[in-house]
Amino acid sequence: MAGIVLFIVSCLMFIIGKLSPSSSISLPRELLTHYICNKLRLDNDAIELASRDYGKLVQETPLGVLYPSLVDDIATLVKFSYDSPNPFSIAARGRSHSIRGQAMAHNGVVVQMTSLKHSSYDSGIRVVRNPSSLLGFYADVGGGELWIDVLLATLEHGLAPVSWTDYLHLTVGGTLSNAGISGQAFVYGPQISNVHEMDVITGKGELVTCSKHINSELFYAVLGGLGQFGIITRARVALGKAPNRVKWVKMLYHDFSSFTRDQEHLISINGGLDYLEGFVVVNQSPPSNLRSSFFSPADQLKINSLVAKHGVIYCLEVVKYYDDLTIDTIEKELPLLLKGLNYLPGFIFKKDKSFVEFLNRVRIGEIELEETGTQDVPHPWLNLFVPKSTIMDFNAGVFLEILKKQNKNKGPILVYPMNRNK
Ligand SMILES: Cc1cc2nc3c(=O)[nH]c(=O)nc-3n(C[C@H](O)[C@H](O)[C@H](O)COP(=O)(O)OP(=O)(O)OC[C@H]3O[C@@H](n4cnc5c(N)ncnc54)[C@H](O)[C@@H]3O)c2cc1C
User: Fold this and answer.
1) What burial class does residue 399 get, using C-beta atoms within 10 Å of its C-beta: 0-12 exposed, 13-18 middle, 19+ buried?
2) Dist. CA 394–CA 387, nearest whole Å
3) For residue range 357-375, what is the model confidence (pLDDT) as tens digits?
């Protein structure tokens, strides 16, 4: 049974909440004289930065921001609050790419996890390539590491994590606190299904190792736990052999039921594709929107007239990995996988990219937006799992009835199926 994941980012303007009025609340004096206060910033720049996130919809002002260089700094801070008669709130902050203040701590302390990056002997990225290990290949990675750095470090060993997010400049702790979903999830499940073990600082300030077998309640609470059950300082992430290159294909549909039928068929093939997503294209939403400039200007014109004709079209996006061993067979294998699909004749577009270029595709789109300044707007964002049984109603009610009629959307709308058992 397949469900559908949907991401909606739009660039509508919202009024940003005002900063909370300054108050007389302050952090306990003992904390301010403690040795970790050297790593605690109370200045406006640090406070201002930690009061904002990617969503730009809410603001919460902390009293201080901890820039830890050791895992122990975080444990000390949490223990301090736990033991204090006036405990204060603490939030781990990765890249703050949340959209509703999830990494903020009103009148508390924000822990800037990326400051651990490469600065600590107990953080960093360590790849284990021991064929006799029961776990297979894996990497121990610090909670503040960025996924792009995990990719580059593991590739040096010919390996890579198996499950990704579309965007890689996010922290390991940040996405494991959510789920970490992308087009590989139909094969491997989300990122949280590919973690063997973690080190977590609990609400009492204790550093605890947890896995399916040890402290399993903590393990399952922290994975997808929105930062509410502990701070991840290390995750043991499953790795697989990395390909060198990818064949990347996009196909356009006018008919939503053909589009979802083909998506579901493709994810049901064992050993078939390596990545599958899809998106909705409405008038005014450039088809490559934030997700790299895939289409040539000439193709873009062709697509624009198709959108103008139909109002809404759908794009099915797939990838097949290959390497030196499969370079000769990929050209035969891919057409076989795509045989019998019902995309609009003539509307199939192909690219050949390196594995890193493909995985890092959203960053390229982001840089383009940063250059035009259009990135600096609020990002209301909604992710939904819709049961297969109602996805046609969703199309009729939302994509056709609202989006097509209002003709206003500017952000990407991703639609792709997920196997419930993953
Ligand atoms: C452009 C863009 C594309 C995206 N694409 C995808 C996608 O394809 N798939 C997907 O699944 N998500 C995607 N996301 C969403 C993203 O995964 C989440 O917003 C994630 O939380 C961002 O990670 P972060 O490092 O910025 O975390 P933050 O926003 O800093 O933190 C998120 C939450 O995790 C907590 N947290 C942070 N670090 C830790 C830690 N070490 N231990 C415990 N809790 C912690 C925070 O307190 C907060 O509650 C995307 C976001 C953006 C901006």
Assistant:
1) buried
2) 10
3) 999 999 887 887 777 776 6
In sequence order, the 6+-apart residues with CB closer than 8 A to the CB of 361 are 166, 291, 292
d(CA 104, CA 62): 7
The answer as to whether 5 is a domain residue is: no
What amino acid is encoded at 103 in this protein? A
Q: Which of 216, 241, 266 is the last residue of a domain?
A: 241
Judged against a pLDDT cut of 60, whether residue 6 lies above it is answered with no
Q: Is 97 a catalytic residue?
A: yes
* Phi and psi at residue 351, to the nearest 5°: -140, 155
Neighbour count for residue 157 (Cβ, 10 Å): 15
Cα distances (Å, whole numbers) of residue 296 to 287, 301, 351: 11, 9, 11
141 and 235 housed in the same domain: yes
Tokens of 385: 């799992």
| Closest residue by CA, ligand 1 atom 51 | 97
For 314-342, what is each residue's pLDDT tens digit?
999 999 999 989 998 999 999 999 999 99
Give yes or no for residue 36 CB within 6 A of ligand 1: no
Do 252 and 388 have their domain in common? yes
Q: What does each C-alpha distance from 21 to 26, 59, 180, 208, 223 come to in angstroms?
A: 14, 12, 35, 38, 35
Identify whether 376 is a catalytic site residue.
Answer: no
Nearest in space to 159 (alpha carbons), one of 180, 176, 135, 175: 135
Domain stop point among 189, 216, 241: 241
Q: Write down the residue that tokens 């949340």 correspond to.
A: 98
Q: Is 163 in the pocket of ligand 1 (CB under 6 A)?
A: no
